[in-house]
Amino acid sequence: MHGVDNKRASRIPESSPIYDIEHTYLFNIENITQLFAKAGFTDVEAFAVPSTYSARHWIKMLPAPHSIREKTMQLAQKIGFADIPVKLYAGNMAVIARKATSVHESTVTADTRFSSRVQENPGYVSGHA
Q1: Looking at the domain assignment, is residue 60 inside a domain?
Q2: Within a 13 Å sphere around the CA of 40, how many CA atoms are in the beta-carbon half?
Q3: Distance between CA atoms of 106 and 91, rounded to whole angstroms?
Q4: Hey, which residues does 95 pair with through a beta bridge?
Q5: Are the C-beta atoms of residues 44 and 125 closer than 8 Å to each other?
Q6: 74 part of a folded domain
Q7: Where are the beta strands (DSSP E) in 3-129?
Q8: In a domain, 45, yes or no
């Protein structure tokens, strides 16, 4: 799923090749954690997931005019960068959780996990772990 708080995704115009109307941007690390807790899950861990693609792919997806993408691609090919894998946090998230045995257990465990993760990594809330 894609994070609603992702700064890069929010700046991408609809005309960009990376824009996909089928992607939903309804959740962030905090609200997806709360949703799972309210649904009765414990040990809820929501986290950013990196995407690894070739530089060629990322260049094709740049939210820039075609002429700029084309020149960037030519340069990347010329210097041997086009086929190198590049890992980016592009707004994808994942959730791992366990079904709780009680509603109280669900709320306490998820809130504790979320709070501790934020303290460990303040950037975590924005989806950029």
Answers
A1: no
A2: 4
A3: 26
A4: 46
A5: no
A6: no
A7: 41-54, 85-99
A8: yes
The total of structural domains in the chain comes to 1
pLDDT at residue 92, rounded to an integer? 87
- For 123, phi then psi, to 5°, come to -70, -10
Q: Scan for tokens 């030519």, then name that residue.
A: 74
Could you list the residue range(s) of the whole structural domain that residue 112 is in?
7-50+89-126
The span from the CA of 109 to the CA of 90, in Å, is: 28
**Strand pairing category for 41-54 and 85-99:** antiparallel
Q: Given 3-state DSSP classes, what are the helix, strand and coil percentages for the chain, each rounded to the nearest 5? A: 45, 25, 30
What lies within 8 Å, CB to CB, of 117 at 6+ separation is 29, 45, 47, 124
Q: What is the mean pLDDT of each run of 10 residues along the chain (129 residues)?
A: 52 56 75 92 93 95 91 97 94 89 57 51 41
71 found inside a domain: no
Q: Hey, how many other C-beta atoms are within 10 angstroms of the C-beta on 41?
A: 20
User: What are the structure tokens assigned to 105, written together?
Assistant: 């257990």
Residue 75 amino acid letter: L
SS3 124: helix
Report the predicted TM-score, pTM, of the whole model to 2 decimal places.
0.58
How many other C-beta atoms can be found within 10 angstroms of the C-beta atom of residue 12? 18
